[in-house]
């Protein structure tokens, strides 16, 4: 039987709309710590483990970004969340984009960190390596491969991730999810793309943050963003923006939260 989605709740009794955080493929909600540590201490937060990840391993909504978006929207309704801010990284960025199209006026702001689905190119080999990694050493090596040169993942975060990967069936779930968004393209492997034409009328303040040295999703995909979305490109940073550029991400989110 499918279980409910797990999300860590902080300060939800506040009158302010919460910030909903969606991590990337193979991650867990706890990996947002470098960013959340830099936000206003009383900021209401809802930090999800995506379907098929971490403590949502057997939840509803396991599949591609569209399936996950429906599951998270349904969960937000169950939690009686009215207006909210939304931020997603990588796969979580694709999920957040699809939630934005469906949420209408409930959404106060949208922040996307190196989002999936903005173009066909993707480093499927690196993602498969990451999705299959179980030990601390394997995870560390896979994460370093997604960062710009010179960065190292935080040991405690890698340890938390290793604990999540040791749950029975964790890597099988990740391979199922990876297969759901990869597609054959011109003899190679690419990713499914978002229906970006549907976003032209999106009346939500949108910020897209991308590392110029992203080895997973090339930064040139940012040019496919819709008019009105503000793009921030960061030099010397790869795909793992939450760890590589937490100050920038927190600052961008601070603007979104104060103006949205």
Write a structural description:
The chain has nine helices and nine strands. The chain is α/β, with parallel strands linked by helices. The chain has helices spanning 33-36, 65-78, 91-103, 124-132, 136-144, 155-165, 170-181, 241-244, 246-259; strands spanning 7-10, 19-22, 45-48, 84-89, 107-113, 182-185, 188-191, 206-211, 230-234. Helix 3 (91-103) links the parallel strand 4 (84-89) and strand 5 (107-113).
Strand order of the largest sheet: 1-3-2-4-5-8-9
Q: What does the main sheet amount to? A: 7 strands, mixed
- Look at the structure and give the CATH class of the domain at 7-120 and 193-259: Alpha Beta
- Structure class: alpha/beta
Overall, the morphology is globular
Number of helices: 9
Straight-line N-to-C gap? 38 Å
How many beta-strand runs? 9
Descriptors for this entry?
260 residues; Rossmann fold; 7-stranded mixed β-sheet; two-stranded antiparallel sheet; 9 helices; 17% strand; globular
Task: Provide a short characterization of the protein structure.
With 260 residues, the chain is an alpha/beta fold. The chain has nine helices and nine strands.
Topology:
Elements: E1 7-10, E2 19-22, H1 33-36, E3 45-48, H2 65-78, E4 84-89, H3 91-103, E5 107-113, H4 124-132, H5 136-144, H6 155-165, H7 170-181, E6 182-185, E7 188-191, E8 206-211, E9 230-234, H8 241-244, H9 246-259
Parallel strand pairs: 2-3, 2-4, 4-5, 5-8, 8-9
Antiparallel strand pairs: 1-3, 6-7
Helix pairs in contact: 2-3, 4-5, 4-7
